[in-house]
Amino acid sequence: MTEPVPALPDPFEDLPTTGGGPDPGTAAIRVTGPSALIASVPHLLGFRPTASLVVVVLSGERNQVRVTARIDLPTAPAPGYAAGVAGRLTRARGDQAVVVVYPPDTDTGTEPGRAAPPTDPAAYADLVDEVAAALTDRDLALRDALWVQAGRWGSYLCSDPGCCPAEGRPLDDADALRARSSLVLAGLGVMPDRQALVESLAPEADASDEAAVRAALHRVTTGQVVLPLTPRAVVDEVAAVLARPRVRAARHLLTAHEVALVLGALAGIRVRDGLMHRLTDHARNRGPGAGAGPDLLVRAEQALSECTRRAVGGAVAPVATVLAAVAWLTGSGARALVALDRALDDDPGYTLAHLLRAAIDGGLPPQQWATWIDEVSLAQCLGEESGPEQAATDPTRVAWGSTSVTGRGSRRRSRRRRGPDPSAGDPSVA
After folding, report:
1. How do residues 179-188 score in pLDDT, each as one tens digit?
2. 29: pLDDT confidence band, cut at 50, 70 and 90?
3. Exposed/middle/buried for 60, CB within 10 Å: 0-12, 13-18, 19+?
4. Which residues pair with 52 in a beta bridge?
5. Is residue 155's pLDDT more than 60?
6. Does the pLDDT value for residue 87 go beyond 80?
7. How far apart are CA 367 and CA 6, in angstroms?
8. Is 101 helix (H, G, I), strand (E, B) or coil?
9. Burial letters 191-220, b for 16+ CB under 10 A, else e
10. pTM of structure
11. H helices within 64-112, ranges in order?
12. Which residues contact 263 (CB under 8 A, 6 or more apart)?
C-alpha cells in the first residue's frame, strides 16, 4: 500500500514583506479586509496562484503582512501536510494567519495515474480545519479561511448566505482595487503563473550575444581592459552600472561589456559581499525621503535579472545569487527562489545560494538576513581591516574573481535539496 507524500517543500514560496521602521521592504502592506487581502496575494507572490494553498501571516493591531507562503494543493489526503505548512511559518514573527485556497478552475490532471486537485472549494474544508489546527499549535490564530476561484471568493468560516453566498462574491470591489493600485505603485507586479516567472530568468537563446558576452568576460578577467583594483572601487563601479537609468525600448538594457563587468566582479567574494551589503543598505532606506529612493533597487534588480539571463555557463551562480538576495529583500520571494534555481543549476556547490535557500525555505523574514549583514561592516566585507592599501596589494584580496566559463547550459545537474517538481507527479513510499 502506498501513501502520497505531501508536496513539501517544492514549490513552497516564502515571501516575507514588511514596511516602516528600519526593516527592508517595498511598503507597509496592511490588510483592510478579505477582498484587499485576496487582491494582494498575486502581487506578494509575483504570480497568480492556482491549485494552491496560501497562508498570509499578519502581525499587530494594524494587520501588517509578515509572510506570504504558497504550496501545491494535495491531490489526495496527505498525512503531515498541515504540519508541514505550519512548520514553515514558525519564524514568521506574526500572531495571526489567513488561509486562502485556490482550487483549479478546471480539471488539470494530465499524467496517467495522477489525479488533479478537486475543483470544488467545499472539498477543502477538512484540509482547512487541519491547517488551522496546526497553525494554532504554532501560536498563529486563524483570522479567516477563504477560497478564490474564477473571479469570486468565499469564506470557510462564514455560514451567513447574505454575507457569503454559496456561489461566492465578486473580487473586484473598491478595497481590492485600492490594494492592487498600492502594490503596483510599490513595484510588486504580477506574472500569469510561476512558469512565466521561471522563463523570465531563463538563459537567452542568442548565440551572437553569448559570444559577445564571453569575449567581453575574457577581456575583463584577463586584464585586457583598465578596471579598478580595490574591492571598494569595483563595488562602486558595479553599483553604478546597476543603477544607471536605461532605455526600456532597447532589446538589452546593458551592453555586453557591462554584463561582463558585473559577472567578472561578482566572481570575487569580497566584491559580491560588498555589493550585497550596499544593496541591503538601500533596501533598508527605500521609504519616503530616502536618498536612494525605490528606483535604484528596481533598476538594480532589472539589471541583475538581465545579467542572469545573459550569463555564460560557469558565471551564473554569483550574479543569480545576488539577484536572489535583492529580490527577497524587496518583496519578490518567489523570484528569489527561481534565481537560486539558476544559481544552483550552474554551480550545485555554491555556498551562499544554499544559505539563502535555507533561510527562505525556513521562513526566515528578510529583515533578519539584513540584520546579519549589518553585523559585518562594509569594510570587513571588502577585506579592508588592514587598510585599503593592503587590500589593494594583498594577493589574497584580489578584487576581480576568476571564472571558468562553459557552454550556455548548466555545468552539471544540481544536487540541491529540493522537494519534488510538481510537474513530475506525486512521489509515494511503500
Report:
1. 555 555 555 5
2. low
3. exposed
4. 72, 102
5. yes
6. yes
7. 29
8. strand
9. beebeebbeebebeeeeebbebbbebbeeb
10. 0.68
11. 81-87
12. 213, 217, 220, 307, 311, 312, 315, 318, 319, 403
Please state, in angstroms and as integers, the Cα–Cα distance from residue 91 to each residue in 67, 136, 363, following that order.
Answer: 10, 14, 6
pLDDT band at 280 (very low <50, low <70, confident <90, very high): confident
What contacts 180, CB < 8 A, 6 or more positions away?
A: 39, 40, 43
Instruction: Record the cell numbers describing residue 251, joined without a space.
Output: 532589446
Residue position matching grid coordinates 489525479: 115
Q: What is d(CA 389, CA 303) in angstroms, rounded to the nearest whole number?
A: 31
Q: Is the predicted pLDDT of residue 45 greater than 70, yes or no?
A: yes
Length of the chain: 430
* Strand pairing report for 169-170 and 152-155: antiparallel
Residue 162 banded pLDDT, cuts 50, 70, 90:
confident
**DSSP state letter for 149:** E
pLDDT at 420: 31
pLDDT band of 57, cuts 50, 70, 90 = confident
Q: How far apart (Å, rounded) are the C-alpha atoms in residues 243 and 262?
A: 12
Contact status, residue 260 vs residue 217, Cβ threshold 8 Å: yes
Q: Percent of the chain scored above 90 by pLDDT?
A: 33
Q: What is the DSSP string of 410-421?
A: -SS---------
SS3 of residue 77 by DSSP: coil
Q: What is the Cα–Cα distance from 256 to 235, expressed in whole angstroms?
A: 19
Distance, in Å, from the CA atom of 419 to the CA atom of 417, rounded to the nearest integer, reads 7
3-class DSSP assignment, residue 30: strand
**Which grid cell sits at 302?**
532589472
Q: How confident is the model at residue 312 (pLDDT cuts 50, 70, 90)?
A: very high
Matching residue, cell 496560501:
54
Give the span between the Cα atoms of 364 and 92, in whole angstroms. Answer: 6
Q: Is the peptide bond before 11 cis (omega within 30 degrees of 0)?
A: yes
Beta carbons within 10 angstroms of residue 96's beta carbon: 18
